[in-house]
Amino acid sequence: MRADLGFLGVGTDVERVYRALLRVGRALPGELAEQCGYQEEQARSVCRRLVELELANSQGDGVLTPLSPARAVEGLVATAVTRLELSLQSEVHTSGIVDALIAERRAPSPGGQPGAGRSVHLAGMAAVRAAIDELTFFTRDESLTTNPTGVLSQESISHARPIDERVLRRGVRMRTVVGHAAREDPPTMAYLRELAGKGAWIRIAHDPIERLIICDRAAALTPLDPVHTAKGAILTHEPGLVAALVSLFERMWTGAEPLPMVEGEDAGGAAGPVNELERKVLHSLCTADKDEVGAREVGIALRTYRKHVAALMRRLDASNRFQAALLAREKGWI
């Protein structure tokens, strides 16, 4: 039995044309129509889908060339994984399962006290990290964080990377201020630039800063003891206290400077009006005729891509995407 690409979401017609293209190396849609026994218009439609799925490239003269099977399948797998992840996330939020489980944890035990109020004391790093995991799971719009020491251990980076990537994939706007010691620590700087390249905004403070984590301006986490952070933290949802902590973060952000650029490299989000991810999104507005194509060009999920496009259009005060691309060019953003 010959394996097919159906399990990766590729239709029979598209796979048939892709296989034909692999055999010949390059061809016009009309030539592929003849080989596959299709009407030319049908072949053109299939070829457009072939390009959309990134199984082939279309040259300026209309000639199609196939992507290598390994690269093509890798892209299909990545798209399928993203689609599955978004579907599962949507189902989780629709089902309310997390809220139900949290309610179990906060429910009063037999003969015990009621669950936590709007401010909770968390003892130990294990409890703090569990709270961070929970907060970031629900974050949808904005993440504000600081790191006063500036230096991240390999353990901290390993723990933070999947959380940060999960947040950024959802299109959450992430802003982080780190202590000035980060400049002298290559592993920390490498990770900060990695985050910036994925869309985070990073600044380095000259003056001492406080440790904060704020999610969607609705919940905030601060250490019980700023000197000995391993003791635990306070998690608060009190609107007045959260608003005060947001104001504190904004003052620290304003007083910090952008992430230094490496020679020959864009610091991605560290300086200028747009970061590297946003610049890629703006470029895609000039080249992609569909959101699905643009998302694949940028390498992010479709929903995340659309959130970035909407945010950029608001910043540019553009009424449509074509105008947004023009305004971005006029401003020198792309």
UniProtKB/TrEMBL annotation:
Domain of life of the native organism: Bacteria
GO biological process: regulation of DNA-templated transcription
InterPro entries reported for this sequence: Sig_transdc_resp-reg_C-effctor, TrmB-like, WH-like_DNA-bd_sf
GO molecular function, one term: DNA binding
PANTHER family, A to Z: HTH-TYPE TRANSCRIPTIONAL REGULATOR TRMBL2
Name this polypeptide is given: Helix-turn-helix transcriptional regulator
Species this chain originates from: Streptomyces sp. SID12501
Phylogenetic classification of the source organism: Bacteria, Bacillati, Actinomycetota, Actinomycetes, Kitasatosporales
